[in-house]
Every structure is written in structure tokens, then in C-alpha cells.
Amino acid sequence: MLTHAERRRGIACGLTSFLGIALFAGAPIAVLLSWDVESTQTRLFTAYTWRILRFTLWQAVLSTTLSIAFAIPVALALARRPHFPGRLWIVRLMALPMGLPVLIGALGLIGIWGRQGIINSLLLKLGLEQPVSIYGLSGILLAHVFFNMPLAARLLLAALERLPAEYWLLSAGLGMKPLSVFRFIEWPAVQRVIPGIAGLIFMLCATSFTLVLVLGGGPAATTLEVAIYQSLRFDFDPPRAIALAFLQIGMTALILLVVITLFPALDDAGATAGRSTRRFDGRTLPALFWDVLVILLATAFLILPLASIVTAGLGANLWSLVTSAAFLRAARTSFAIALAAGLLTILVSLAIVAAREAVADMKRPGRTAKGFSALLGGTSYLVLLVPPVVLGTGWFLMLRPLGDVARFAPALVAAINALMALPFVMRVLAPAIETHRKRTGRLSASLGISGLSRLGRIDLPVLAKPLLTAFSFAMALSLGDLGAVALFGSSDLTTLPWLVYSRLSSYRTNDADGLALILGIICLGLAMLGTAGQREAKHG
Amino acid sequence: MRRIALSIFAAATGLFLSVSAHAQEKTLTVYTYESFVSDWGPGPKVKEAFEKTCACKVDFVGVADGVALLTRLKLEDENTDADIALGLDTNLISEAKATGLFEPHGLDISAVKVPGNYSDDTFIPYDYGHFAVVYDTKVMKNPPRSLKELVDGDPSQKIAIEDPRTSTPGLGLLLWMKSVYGDQAPEAWAKLKNRVLTVTPGWSEAYGLFTKGEVPMVFSYTTSPAYHMVEEKTDRYQAASFSEGHYIQIEVGGMLKGSSDKDLARQFLKFMISPEFQDVIPTTNWMMPAAETSEPLPEAFGKLVQPKKTFLMGSDEIAKNRQAWIDEWLTAMSRN
Amino acid sequence: MADGIVLEKVELRLGTRDFRFDCALPAGAVTAVTGPSGSGKSTLLNLVAGFETPDRGRVVIAGDDATDKHPSERPVSLIFQDNNLFTHLDLFTNVGLGISPSLKLSAEDWKAISEALVRVGLGGFDKRMPGTLSGGERQRAAFARTLVRRKPVLLMDEPFAALDPGLRLSMANLLLDLHRETRNTVLIVTHDPDEVGRLAEHAVFIDHGRILLQAPAKEFLGRRDIPAIADFLSG
């Protein structure tokens, strides 16, 4: 259905993106591998390595399962209640944890669930002798669910909202009971996107580092990422760090493969007549009660730790913080980096989607073409597993001969952030574009609408919403990221999370709390940007 | 092809940089850690004071911490721009020397006064602090008075400590335990484990938990209470004095072989142990000065714990045993 | 008169199914493509439209070899069962895109679009969005677009299948009226024998990817000697 030029362009875009990513991630690995170490001091695969590998995967499996198990009822309830009071704000709230620096989120959680938190104070008042400790596996799981459940819920909700409005008319017409609606309509829609979401969350949890250490309670809770960090930072043994990174990528890829085999992704069929969704089910009292309960619980679960961040933040002198030169400089830097990262990741995602589309459009794609398409899909996914500290260190070595690294650092950090955001952006964009193509592809082709005209008239108006969502996702991620900056430290490259940490490391907890609050507000703003246009849809 | 293009580009940038550098006054590049150069750290004041005496420009490059500083130097190797590295600690010295990047200072350092009379031909101390358990007086009425009391004490009174795999205070505690307990350290760790609320990747996380009231004790420095007394006017947070003595962390600076102006670098090292520099340290870096200050320290510093005995291990010994000790720690702490 | 559409020894394999079509369809007439579901009716239409390209053989439309041409380069207009309109664009724009894919319209084009909408009974609906229309109205708008495109061939894939019987009748009449005015070649896929009788002059019957019969519609409707066709007509 694509013209030859379009197909060629798609493949070329994909190829460029792939080479770009491969070079960007591969070059630093190659450089680090060739680093001359007199003798690697410790053997790679000791009992220790296996133990942390086992723990890494185990906690990631549990965290992923719990996040998704919680997210499913939340997404179902929100999808069933398009007119729930404050629904739009609840959806926006779900974008917040993503942009929070991890430590800030952890402190917020501790404010609620910690030994001195609300929950324990309540329990102690009720006569409990000892506070319930969240440190250990339970704390890790709690934090991972806090950060990832909203992500899963948002993506699941999007999948449910892509269902044709007719389905709800149909199910009502057929007199389907809630269980049947779930079994025949909701679950198939949800199940299609679960492997992707689960994979994403799994990777995030497997590479989690600060959360695992802070809430894990002791070195029994250690992830491979800690070992990678240790071997690069403390022992300075790059080949070992790379070997561990490969172990991490290999094991995670293996597990993802199993997930994908267990939950094969079905074809995302279905087209709507472009009417807004009206739901006729769930009008019974118990159903209403259940949905309200689920939504309130989820909202409380998210909002309480955020509220504790707000309370702490209000203790700071916000005005003088916001007007300080250091803050303004950091905000400018952060925004420039996030903007660049957001744009870059959107461009790369579009290129990858275009290339996969071009391959799918071939009548009989050869093994190379199919392999290329799979490779693109896999790459855009697994990049999340390449530790930023590895990328940063490798690029540092390569850029050194070109002069002062500090000058390249912002571009480099933006590129690393873009890479990290790629899987998220793909999750948002790929299905939206696929649905859009199914609806308009043949029509556009037969009318000869292509190139810029298709982009401007057919694609952008429909895809503006997912594009904005994806863009705000990517920006929030980049704004909250600290990892990539660490090595380049210079007064020219102070980002907002960096500023938060640096205040913390100079006893200035109050300032850090205030800055965290400001970061949270910025992310809320981005979430509003990402959900812009949803209000109109409600009246449509 | 790409390589050629790269090197041409590199040569061109290099040329440009060197031309523009010559046009200006002399520049002294100092690599240090981030909190040293932050607005409220010693950096700005040190820069101002030194620039007055040297007719030069001081350029600070701040990385995350002392360990990152050494990593960066290793990465840059002989091409480093640094004239001075400021902020390594005594634990890192033998590793730093092994890089072969540093040059003996050849200065008279009799002005330096740190506990244990530490001295070295390459690195000069500029401040120090004893590690200590800092506690919240509102919660802890009977703080431990020795490391043994800490280890054997009530397990419901928790402490937050740092991970020796990722942080310098974490390594400090490991060495302190080793100094006191020797071969019995694993058993002591196994006991202390029950009092440990959590092990954080760095000092900031642990101290954050502490000031948020989540944990009544934290592993920090004897000087930490000074910050709260001076800046927040509260003596709520205090360091516990341990009868066995305290492990010390000495922060040092050294000059690099590749420095473009060694006289200037040496001049800075000399300045580092002069009262102008030392005056700045206590209330900005919240550490003890390593040499005479021109005025007495703020009153709060007089109230701080004064360790009767100081522990410090040779950095060769640390370099040799660090991995084995960390493994020992891991085993003890992971036991159920 | 030249043949309108020729499929010359066309062979195509899609997954495990293979298709072989060899036929010539008369110009200026309405030909119904019919057969049981899954027989390959839509595949034949897709070959003419260009959504599928043959592995072997040629597709000739109005005397020109179109075998390797992109759908937009073929002299055809299309109407599907559904999704004929871009739901986020108003009717005027939807029809206008039929004239110029980049919507560069002259004053004449503007007039032609409004007239076409009037002709299909949607006068004054220029600014309406597709979501606010009934299914019949949406198909009418699609007709309006084929009018302004002025292509010699019109391909329709079950265009009335989603409409109720009364509407189907009036739409069929509209189609015949328009056909009489333009004298274009019409290919309509349908599985409804009544529709074949109502609309078509010729019929092509397809079964298992092969053309079983190609005949005038009247003759086709009377055939009972081929079991597959007999089944179809009685069923």
C-alpha cells in the first residue's frame, strides 16, 4: 500500500536509527572492553554474582507481577467510568512518579509507609507494639509498584480506550454480564498489551539501583546494576562492568522471551466509527462500589506519598529557591536537555515505526527484512538495559581527545536520556500509529495522499494526542534522570535532580525538599500537556 | 576515514583552545567533588582568596565525589587538564599513586596538624573528620558509648549505614569495625545487622532518612552536629563518642605530573594549608581544618566529640584487602 | 469497445491460499464480482485497486498496464464497506481530498465539491463531521468523492453490506443514476444475488480463488448446472 518511495524512505529511516543506536550504545562498550586492565581482580561468575542475579530477577518478576495485577483493575475501573469526577486529574497524577528523582519518591514513600509514617502511627495507636518495617523485599516491591503501577495503568487504559465504541454497544445489546465483558472484550484488549508493558516494567525493576539499596535493608538485596556500578566506579574494572552488563541484558532478554511466548501478542484489530465512548455496563450498585473503591485506593496509594513530598517541600523557602541563580541555571539546562531528548526519541521512534511498517507492507518480506524488523523492535526495547554509567564512561573516553568533555556533555546526556525513553515512547506511539494506519492506510493510498500532505492532514491531527503523550513521557523521564550526568560534573551541567542531590549531600535537606516539590509540579505540568485535548474528547 | 576526520577535528579544536588560552591569564584547573564547588561550599571563597594572590584564574571541575574524581583521572590519564586534584581521601591514596599521575609536592608541610600525624610526600591534608554515629536526642536518650555498645545494643533502635561497595563513609565503617574487631569483625557485623534499618548507596540517602525522622541513628561524622548548631540553631542532633576511638577520614589534595604550570600548582597546595583557606573549611565543608586558622573555630565546634583515639589504616593495606573485607561483610550481612 | 479491466493470467499466493484469475471485464458496464465468502472476491478487487500485486501475470486497466503501479497512480476510485472517510476531517475536506491529495483546490473544484454533495443528497453538509452522520450518509459522501475524481473505473467492496435493506435499495438506485451519467466501468463485490440482479450487467463468479464463470448477469442468475453457483443462488 505504500509507494516505493515511502517504503524506501521507511527502511532508510529505520536503518539510520538502528545504526545510530547501535553506534551510540556499541561504541562505548567496545571502548571499555578494550580498556587495558593489568589483571581483573575478581572472577566474574562467583557465587556472589549468581546470588545477586537471582535476587535481581526475582524481585523484578514480583514487582512486575504486582504492578500489573494492581494496574489492571485500576485501568478497567477508569475505562468503565469515563465521567468519574476528577478522572482527568487522576490520569495526570499517574504521570508524576515517573518524573520524580528516585530518592525523592523513596523518601515520600517512607513518609507514609516508613517506621514513622502515617500507616505505622495508625497501627501503633491501634495498639501495635513494634512498627511494621517495610525494609526488605516488601519495601522494594512497594516502591516499584508505586513507580510502575501508574505507568502500567496508563498504558492499559490507552489500550482499552482504543477499543471500538461499538463493542460497548454490542456487549450491552447482547446482555453480557460483567464477567463476560471482561472475558470477551476487556481481557483480550488488555492481554494484547501486557507483554509489552510487563517487559518494560521488568527492565525498569531489574535495573533499579537506589530504591533497592535504600529500601532493601541490607546487601542481601542487591541488583546487578549495583555490581556494575561498583566495578566501574570503585574498582574501575571496565571489562568486568561490561561483562556484568551483558549478563544483565542476556538474562532479561531471556525472561522477556518467555513472557512473549506465554502471552503471544495478537493482532490489534478493530476500528471505531470515531464516536466517543459510552459505556452501558457496570451500572449495578456493587459494580459502582467496586470501581469507586479501586479508583480511590489507587489514588490514595499514589497521592499520599506525593502529599508527603508536598508537605516537606512547603517547609522550604520556595520563592527564594525558584529565583536563585543556581535553580534558574539548572532549570534551563534540564529543560534544554529534556526538550532535546524528547524530540530525539520521538524522531527515532517514528523512524523505527516507519521501517517496521515498510517491512510489514512488503508482500513477502525476506528473512533479512523480517529479521531487521524484529531487530528494530528488540533494540528499541532492550536499550533500557544498557546501564547509563557504561554509556557515560565509554563516551567520556571517546570524546576526551576532542577537547573539554563538558562541552559535549549536554548533548550526550540528552542522547542517553532519549535512548532510555525510547521503549516508553514506542509503547505509546506504535499501537496508536498502527490503529491509525488500519483505519486510513488504504484510503490514503487510493487517493494518493502521501508525504507531507498525509503527515499534515491525515496523520498529525489524529496522532497529535499520542505524540504529545509520548513527548511528555520522554521529557518527564529526562527531567527526573540523574544517572547520566554523574561523571561529567561541571558547573556548566547542573540539572534539577543533580541540584536536589547536591543540596542533600550538603545537609541542605530543606532546599532539596523544596526542589523536589518544584520538580513534581513541573512533571504535573508535563502530564497536563500529555493529556491535553482529552477534555474535548469527553464532549465529542 | 572517520578516525581521520575525528583527529582533524580534534587537532582543530585543540589549536583553537590553546590559542584562546594563551590570550588570557594563567589558569589553574582544580578537579574536586561537587559539594566543594557548590554555592554554599568552600569553592567560591577559596577561588576568590587564591585569585587575589596569584594573578590567575581558578577553574573548578566538580564531579560526584572523591571516588568519581579518581575514576575521572584514570579515564583521562596523561591528557588530563587537571593541575590539582582536591578531595581524595586517605583510603584512596595508594590507588591514586598507582596511576603514576601525581607528582610529589616537595613542600614543607609542618603546618599540617591532623590526628595521627598523617604525612605524605605527594598528598597534603586540607581537612579531616572522624566518622561517628550521629543520633537524634529527641528519640535516643541513651546513645551507645562504644562501638561494642552499638553492636550489642537494643535491636529495635535502628541505624542507617552506607554501603562500602558504593560509598566512602560505608568503607569507613567497614575499616573501623575491622580496626576494633579484627578477625572477629564478621561476627560483630552479624550482630550489628539486626540494628541496621537499611544500607544506602551513599551518605545523602542515609542522612536523608535520619533527618526525616525515619531512623534515630545514622553513620556520619563527628562534625555533622556543627551544621545543625550553626545553621539551624539546634543541638537536637549529636554525635556519640565511642570509647574505643574513632576512625578518621582525611581529605587531601595533590598536584599532577602533567600540570602545565607546576609552580602555580605548588603555590595552590601551599595556600591550601594557609589560614586563608583553612578559615573557610569548617563552616562550608563542615569538616575540621587540617592546619591553623586565623580565628578560633565557631563555638559549636568546641562542643563536638573529641575522639581520644584515632584509627587510620595504611592505604596499601586497604587496597590489598578491600575486596576480601567487602566479601566478608557481604557474607555476614546477608546471613539470615 | 475496449475491455475496461483485464486480468491476464494473474497468479498470487497469500499465505497458504493461491489465486489464479484470467478475465476481461467490459468497459462502461457494471460487473458484479460474487461468490461464497472467502472465495477471493476481495482479493480480485485488491489486485485491480493495487493493494495486492500479482506474482505473475498483468493487470491492465483502461488499456494501460497497471501491474506495478501504486494504488494512487491507477485510474480508479474506491468505496469500501466502512472507513471511507477520515473521521477527523469534515465532508468537504474528505471529498476535496479526492481531487487533490494536498487539497490544492481551484474555485471550480470548490463548486464541483458542493455540487457533488448536492448530487448525492448531502447538500449543505459541507462542514459536518463523519461521526455525526448515519452509515448511509457516510456512503453517500464516498459517492460524492468518486464523482469529483472522474476516474474511468469505480471499485466497490460490499459498499452496501452494512446498510439496512431500504437504504440498500435507494443507494443502488443512486449508483445506477450516477453510472448512467458517467458511463464508467464499475466493479462491485457483493455476496447478495438480488444485488447482482438489481445492479449488474455482467457477473464474475469466484470459488476457491478461481473464476468459475464469467457471463451476463441474467445468464448467471439462471445457471443451475454448476453446483457451487446453484448453492450460492439458492442460499
Automatic annotation (TrEMBL), chain A:
Subcellular localization: Cell membrane
User: Which part of the chain is the ABC transmembrane type-1 domain?
Assistant: 53-259, 331-530
> Which keywords annotate this record?
Cell membrane, Membrane, Transmembrane, Transmembrane helix, Transport
Concerning Gene3D superfamilies, the annotation shows:
MetI-like (1.10.3720.10)
- The organism of origin for this protein: Xaviernesmea oryzae
Q: What is the lineage of its organism?
A: Bacteria, Pseudomonadati, Pseudomonadota, Alphaproteobacteria, Hyphomicrobiales
A GO cellular component annotation in the UniProt record: plasma membrane
What name does this protein carry?
Answer: Thiamine transport system permease protein
- Any transmembrane segments, and where? 12-35, 55-78, 90-114, 134-157, 193-221, 241-266, 287-314, 334-353, 374-396, 408-430, 467-489, 514-532
Q: How does it sit in the membrane?
A: Multi-pass membrane protein
| Principal place of residence | membrane
**Superkingdom in the source lineage:** Bacteria
Q: Which GO terms describe its biological process?
A: transmembrane transport
Family to which the UniProt record says this protein belongs: Belongs to the binding-protein-dependent transport system permease family.
- Pfam families (UniProt xref): BPD_transp_1
From TrEMBL, chain B:
Q: GO terms for CC? A: outer membrane-bounded periplasmic space
Question: InterPro entries under this entry?
Answer: SBP, ThiB, ThiB-like
Keywords, A to Z, come to: Periplasm, Signal, Transport
**What's an example GO BP annotation here?**
thiamine transport
- Its domain of life reads Bacteria
**Cleavable signal peptide:** 1-23
A single Gene Ontology MF term assigned here is: thiamine binding
Q: Where in the cell is it found?
A: Periplasm
Q: What is its main location?
A: periplasm
Report the sequence similarity comment from the record: Belongs to the bacterial solute-binding protein 1 family.
Designated name of the protein:
Thiamine-binding periplasmic protein
Name its species. Answer: Xaviernesmea oryzae
UniProtKB/TrEMBL annotation, chain C:
The residue ranges of the ABC transporter domain are: 2-233
SUPFAM superfamilies in the cross-refs: P-loop containing nucleoside triphosphate hydrolases
**One MF term from GO for this chain?**
ATP hydrolysis activity
Keywords tagged on the record:
ATP-binding, Cell inner membrane, Cell membrane, Membrane, Nucleotide-binding, Translocase, Transport
Which superkingdom heads the taxonomic lineage of this protein's source?
Bacteria
Please name the InterPro entries in this protein's record: AAA+_ATPase, ABC_SmlMolc_Importer, ABC_transporter-like_ATP-bd, ABC_transporter-like_CS, P-loop_NTPase
Concerning its family, UniProt says: Belongs to the ABC transporter superfamily.
The protein in question is named Thiamine transport system ATP-binding protein
What organism is the protein native to? Xaviernesmea oryzae
Query: Species lineage, top-down?
Result: Bacteria, Pseudomonadati, Pseudomonadota, Alphaproteobacteria, Hyphomicrobiales
